[in-house]
Amino acid sequence: MKYMIYIMLVSVLLIMSCSRKDQEPNMTEDYTSANQEWLTGQVDYEGFPLLLRRPKDLDYDLLKDTFPNLVVVTHQFAKTKPSGLPEDDYNLGLADFDYEVVNYFRNRKQGITVLVETFGGKRNYYMYAATDADADKAKAHFKQNYPEHNLSWVIKNDPDWGFIKAYAKECF
Fold first, then answer.
1. Are 71 and 37 in contact (CB under 8 A)?
2. Is the C-alpha dihedral spanning 95, 101, 102, 106 positive or negative?
3. What whole-number distance in Å separates Cα of residue 128 and Cα of residue 126?
């Protein structure tokens, strides 16, 4: 039953990638805007809370040509509850850091965050970035400005957005 609820929630969150194939993306306004609307949800998965956040109305097919590289930043929390969620005060203290991770590539018109997942003592930020986005510069930026956070990075070519499409398909 819990798995079905999980499937339904993630399906609702990820199905919003409806086609707008007749429109060219306005990267400045539509996808890289500070006004981007987000969908959120929480379910129990394997007996623990799973929190999801994703931008509303992303068109994967339009964006995949502009942002072919998958960037995954994993933040291992320093302070967690037994549930794996961050402690409340600690989580409040992460607000500026979280905002900067989510918006790092977007603010540079070099990428978009497609999913933020909080589960099991960590938060995963899934982003797609342009080929000219400097991930090493991003890593250095966060290491210098947020040395207290335990971050790991995975960067790989995913021109068809296979990761996020598989994530969505798995939940249908």
1. no
2. positive
3. 7
Percentages (nearest 5) of helix, strand, coil residues in the chain: 35, 30, 35
70 - beta bridge partners? 128, 156
Query: How many residues are present in the chain?
Result: 172
CA distance 89 to 86: 8
- Give pLDDT tens digits along the chain (172 positions): 544 444 444 444 444 333 333 444 444 345 555 677 888 989 898 999 999 998 988 888 899 999 999 999 999 999 999 999 999 999 999 999 999 999 999 999 999 999 999 999 999 999 999 999 999 999 999 999 999 999 999 999 999 999 999 887 765 3
How far apart CA 63 and CA 27 sit, in angstroms, is 9
CA 39, CA 116: separation in Å to the nearest integer?
Answer: 10
C-alpha closest to that of 121 among 69, 26, 51, 39? 51
Rounded to whole angstroms, how far apart are CA atoms 144 and 36?
27
Instruction: Produce one character per residue of 106-138: b if its CB has 16 or more CB atoms within 10 Å, e if not.
Output: bebebbbbbbbbbbbbbbbbbbbbbeebebeeb
The two three-digit tokens of residue 58, written as one number: 């992303």
